[in-house]
Amino acid sequence: MNKYEILKKYFGYSQFRDGQEALIDAILSGRDALGIMPTGAGKSLCYQIPALLLPGITIVISPLISLMKDQVQTLNQAGIHAAYINSSLTENQIAKALQLAAKGTYKIIYAAPERLETYGFLEFAKQAEISMLTVDEAHCISQWGQDFRPSYLKIVRFLQQLKRRPIVSAFTATATERVREDIVCVLGLEQPKLLVTGFDRRNLYFAVETVKQKDRFVLDYIKSHPEESGIIYCSTRKNVDALFEKMQDLAIPSARYHAGMGQEERRQSQEDFVYDRRPVMAATNAFGMGIDKSNVRYVIHYNMPQSLENYYQEAGRAGRDGDAAECILLYSPQDVMINQFLIENKEQNPEFTEEELAAVREKDAERLRIMNYYCLSTSCLRAYILNYFGEHNRGDCQNCSNCRKEFEETDVTAQAEKIISCVKELRGRYGINVAAGTLAGDGRAKLREYGMNGYSSFGSLAEMGEQRIKRVINQMLVEGYLTVTPDKYALLKLTDKSDEIIQGAGKVVIREVKGETSSYLQKPASSVSRRKSDILNSRGLELFDRLRGLRSEIAKREGMPPYIIFSDKTLVDMCVRLPFTREEMLEVNGVGEHKFNKYGEPFLEELRAYTGEKREKMFFGEMEEAESKAGNPLKYTRMKKGKADFFISAKQAEQFPYAEKYLAPELAVKLNELRDPDAVKKTSGAEIIRRSQAMGLSEEKLEDGLRCKTVTEKGKEAGLFLGIRISQKGTEYQDVYYDRNAQGMVVAWFVQ
After folding, report:
1. Nearest to 336 by CA among 286, 374, 281
2. Average pLDDT of 651-660?
3. Are the beta carbons of 237 and 284 closer than 8 angstroms?
4. What is the pLDDT of residue 706?
5. 599 in the same domain as 667
6. Does the pLDDT value for residue 343 go beyond 80?
7. HEC states along 480-515?
8. Cβ burial 105-116 (10 Å sphere, 16+ → b, else e)
């Protein structure tokens, strides 16, 4: 069998998603690989398919028992023999599993990192033919990652003890450039295929809401989404327990999960959630890693997380099936104090030196500040996240709370000048609260004790009020006119850019929301991302509900989570295609041969009974046949969904207005003028930049806290070059331009 046949037979898909095939091909050619792919992008297939094609065994290192169980259960349901080795098994069970693996019964073995140093496992590994070692959740190996686990360092020692080094592949959903470099270095990856498919989860709606009554918001939200599954993350066990009790009082079928509960109680809560017996989960961040529940429709953060990495990973547990889902963060300034306390008191690696511990603490403090800036930002939330992970994005996604709010802009440069004077006068000895209180002329005892009422800046911005002063200070921090020390005290300091404000060369503008209504409540229904089931008409929805009911019956009988039987996405595809035969059912997205043999016939019977075996249209839109990618002999059927992704014809390309130079956004404008606006979506400067970076033509790096753009030698040959650009504020900076040759290259990218 080849990779396409395996993809179809075992997993039920007819084509690969972005990045999957490139990583699979690299591994099959014998190369190490590192894949950075967002949650729900199909990372597991990137090592599972090569594992079935490589001659020996693949060992997958996974951090949590629940993650291993879920993956092995899914593989076994697909007809692939796999096993896990962890502390949930007895020593006899482990010995039996290793014995079967040695005989070739299992092609894939999941193991906890702690297992690698046990005598029995090491002896097995030395004798077995290990073709590949895969590191899942690879960010756990980096001390610069948000979830560093010292046990992951055992992987390196394990590899050194093997007689022959296998292919090493690593995968994670969230990793900054520094973490990516650390993964490659620590694991010792040899000339790896590095692939970053992008961090954007377009089906997710992001929102930050500042609400006084968080409990009321959460309970009202759950009551307005009664048929949906969701997770509410809280920073403390106390908040989890309190919220859980209130949900119980309202008879909401809910569960809770935190480290203070007994192991059996946690296991039962997790199962109740996964099996949809209790579809709402209140939990600390101890819950979630390895939970592959595809139909989570919302994730609400009751408190602000400690880092953007943590937030994006936790929020990313929504909408894994690709359908629309919502990620809402409820912010309050007190969350910052709670997180500072948690960071100061978190358990540290005893193997670290004092210097290393200090560096980790500084990094934690920096992550917390970046997370706080996210909550205070008035720009596109999606762009903020993507830019943090190194993926250039200009914003205006129209699928986040900030893009849906109506703002008014206010020039506060004069006030910024007074803030700089105050910081200078305070000589960098105090933080935001003291500076804002001083400028507001607050008479509280603490400020009198510090002698702030004796400074010339005391009360110089009394008309603004302390909260608005803090808003301006935060904006200045974001723009680099001020900075804070990298420790828990976060003392305000001036920067090299501060003088631009004093000299009249800089400008500070704040955006403030018109009105105080929650942006979530203001969100127009017509602009919400559509779910897959939204394409079904009333008859289709009725059939969809019947298929879900059948799936629940089978899941209960089999003791299996419903989404492992078939996902909602697969059920919708059944409603659209209306398969009446085995051959037609195997064309449904997500139905492989093994799954059909186990579950296909009952679903065919339900489809025949509901329709009387008569073809009828149960969806909106039209169907079209399309050939698959070159080299793939299979066909797939897809729904037409409004406009096609951006492209131009060869004739349209001939009309492109070439110029001496264009910036990427200017190129996008000219390209969009050529397209058919009724049938084709727009492209963007961000898309052109992303493609340029993916091809190794240009790069963006963080230097001294600023993003610097560079053109590679390959980019120079293609016609890219750096030039001076002037911002709206009059600041000069370097940007990437495209000459005539480069313009021709970009045009050719989009010609069909």
Report:
1. 374
2. 89
3. yes
4. 60
5. no
6. no
7. CCEEECCCCCCCEEECCCHHHHHCCCCCCEEEEECC
8. ebbbbbbbbebb
Residues near 506 by beta carbon (within 8 Å), at least 6 away in sequence: 413, 416, 481, 497, 500, 729, 731
Distance CA 609, CA 605 (A): 6
| Residue 698 DSSP code | E
Q: Is the pLDDT of residue 605 over 60?
A: yes
For residues 223 and 749, give the distance between their C-alpha atoms in angstroms, rounded to a whole number.
48
- pLDDT at 130 exceeding the cut of 90: yes
Six-digit token pair at 713?
Answer: 């030698």
Answer yes or no: do 286 and 254 share one domain: yes
DSSP-assigned states of every residue in 39-59? TTS-HHHHHHHHHHHSSSEEE
Give buried/exposed letters for 533-546 (b at 16+ CB in 10 A, else e).
Answer: bebbeeebbebbeb
| Contact assessment for residue 443 and residue 453, using Cβ atoms and an 8 Å cutoff | yes
Amino acid at 552: S
- Cβ atoms of 509 and 410 within 8 Å: the answer is yes
Residue whose pair of structure tokens reads 């559509």 in the numeric block = 530
* Residue 526 domain-assigned (yes or no): no
**Among residues 158, 175, 196, which one ends one of the domains?**
196
Q: Which of 265, 273, 266, 267 is nearest to 294 (CA)?
A: 273
* Residue 518 placed within a domain: no
Predicted TM-score (pTM) of this structure: 0.68
> Are 192 and 222 within one domain?
no
What would the two tokens of residue 590 be? 């997500």
Unique residue bearing structure tokens 């900054």 = 176
Helix (H) or strand (E) holding 61: strand 57-61
Mean pLDDT of the chain: 85
Specify the number of domains making up the chain: 5
